[in-house]
């Protein structure tokens, strides 16, 4: 997918991409070459993606800038949010840039101030050279191979895995699954040991595991009418074993805070679906449904998937803080399921 700073809007939305996505990324590079600052870069990847989708970069051509308006227009044409409004090929970009070269402008008898003419020659040459590299990339030359992630299979039964979390030591996972025709159960698997071990919580669904190893799970889960979210009795149980302790009813999802002291919960109520953080304090409500709440490593925000319609898993990524201030990080995905923060809290 590439570095977040140079992602196109369609990449952020996880939509199909083509050469026009590369043109947007190229526009980001041109902008940075000319200004020494990124077009959309923010402090976190989530904020950067929001900027790519919703914001426009600072104009290049200003009264105190040596950048000509024509070059500004070329860069902005590369950075159109809608791919249909961008240059349609690398060849189009090259043609537009070459038309700005000193030679072309002399042929057209376009007058430039001497200082600007001296400035333009090396910069336009560098920009055209970059455009040629883009054209080479567009036809498959100098295309960097993506880094391949390595995955190891841990389960081999036939069925469905509903949720999984890393164990606190990072050397295993806890997951809830329904194998064959058996009811849902919690299991644990270690990376260095083949096979899985049942945790003896029949019918339970995993929601989260705290840094100290305490499980948050739902029991007696039932599918809520017109919703993909299964609701049940939220319970806490030690990972090492022991009877679960009931906490809250009508809970769809839950997550532990990084220090293990608080829970964020999603609950079905007469007022709609509510996100509480900490449990009991509503910070977001919707007439649709909420899934996959994840508390940020900093403990001050919750990311989640906001589904505007029940019985429809289209959704967008949202972040809300303890005060209820929310921000949409993406547009509406055709299907959205599963969410996690990076350890540093700069990506979701």
Architecture overview:
The protein is an alpha+beta fold and 348 residues long. The protein has two domains: 1-102, Transferase(Phosphotransferase) domain 1 (Transferase(Phosphotransferase), domain 1), CATH 1.10.510.10; 159-328, TolB, C-terminal domain (Neuraminidase). It contains seven helices and 15 strands. β2 and β3 form a beta hairpin. The chain starts with 8 loop residues before the first helix and ends in a 20-residue tail after the last strand. The model is unreliable at 103-117 and 139-147 (pLDDT under 50).
Summarize the structure.
By secondary structure, this protein is an alpha+beta fold. It is built from seven helices and 15 strands. The protein has two domains: 1-102, Transferase(Phosphotransferase), domain 1 (Orthogonal Bundle); 159-328, 6 Propeller (Neuraminidase).
Identify the notable features of this structure and list them briefly.
7 helices; four-stranded antiparallel sheet; Neuraminidase; 348 residues; Transferase(Phosphotransferase), domain 1; single chain; 15 strands
Instruction: Round the Cα radius of gyration to an integer and report it.
Output: 26 Å
**Largest sheet features:** 7 strands, antiparallel
SSE arrangement, N to C: HHHHHHHEEEEEEEEEEEEEEE
Structure summary, number of beta strands: 15
Instruction: Report low-confidence residues grouped into runs of 5 or more.
Output: 103-117, 139-147
Give the count of structural domains.
Answer: 2
Query: Approximately what portion of the residues adopt beta-strand conformation?
Result: 25-35%
Please state the average pLDDT score.
81
Q: How is the CATH topology of the largest domain named?
A: Neuraminidase
The first-level CATH class of the largest domain is given as Mainly Beta
Please give the count of helices.
7
Proportion in helices: 10-25%
- Shape category: elongated
């Amino acid at each position: 997918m590439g570095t977040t700073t140079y992602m196109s809007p369609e990449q952020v939305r996880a939509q199909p991409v083509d050469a026009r996505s590369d043109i947007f990324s190229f526009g980001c590079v041109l902008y940075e070459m000319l200004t020494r600052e990124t077009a959309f870069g923010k402090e976190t990847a989530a904020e950067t993606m929001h900027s790519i989708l919703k914001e426009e970069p600072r104009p290049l051509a200003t009264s105190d800038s040596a950048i000509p308006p024509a070059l500004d227009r070329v860069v902005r044409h590369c950075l159109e949010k809608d791919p249909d409004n961008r240059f349609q090929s690398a060849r189009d970009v090259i043609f537009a840039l070459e038309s700005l070269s000193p030679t072309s402008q002399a042929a057209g008898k376009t007058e430039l101030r001497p200082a600007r003419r001296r400035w333009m020659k090396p910069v336009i040459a560098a920009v055209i050279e970059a455009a040629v590299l883009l054209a080479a990339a567009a036809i498959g030359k100098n295309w960097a191979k993506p880094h391949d992630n390595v995955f190891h299979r841990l389960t081999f039964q036939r069925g469905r895995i509903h949720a999984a979390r890393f164990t606190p030591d990072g050397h295993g996972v806890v997951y809830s699954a329904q194998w064959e025709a058996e009811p849902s159960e919690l299991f644990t698997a270690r990376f260095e040991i083949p096979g899985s071990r049942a945790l003896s919580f029949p019918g339970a669904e995993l929601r989260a595991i705290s840094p100290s190893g305490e499980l948050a799970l739902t029991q007696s889960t039932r599918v809520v009418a017109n919703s993909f979210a299964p609701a049940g009795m939220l319970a806490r149980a030690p990972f090492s074993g022991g009877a679960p302790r009931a906490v809250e009813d009508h809970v769809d999802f839950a997550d532990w805070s990084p220090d293990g002291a608080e829970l964020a919960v999603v609950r079905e109520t007469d007022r709609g679906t509510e996100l509480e953080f900490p449990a009991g304090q509503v910070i977001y409500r919707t007439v649709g449904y909420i899934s996959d709440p994840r508390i940020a490593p900093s403990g001050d925000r919750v990311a989640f998937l906001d589904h505007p319609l029940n019985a429809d898993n289209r959704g967008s990524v949202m972040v809300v803080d303890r005060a209820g201030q929310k921000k949409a990080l993406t547009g509406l995905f055709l299907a959205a399921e599963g969410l996690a923060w990076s350890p540093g809290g700069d990506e979701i």
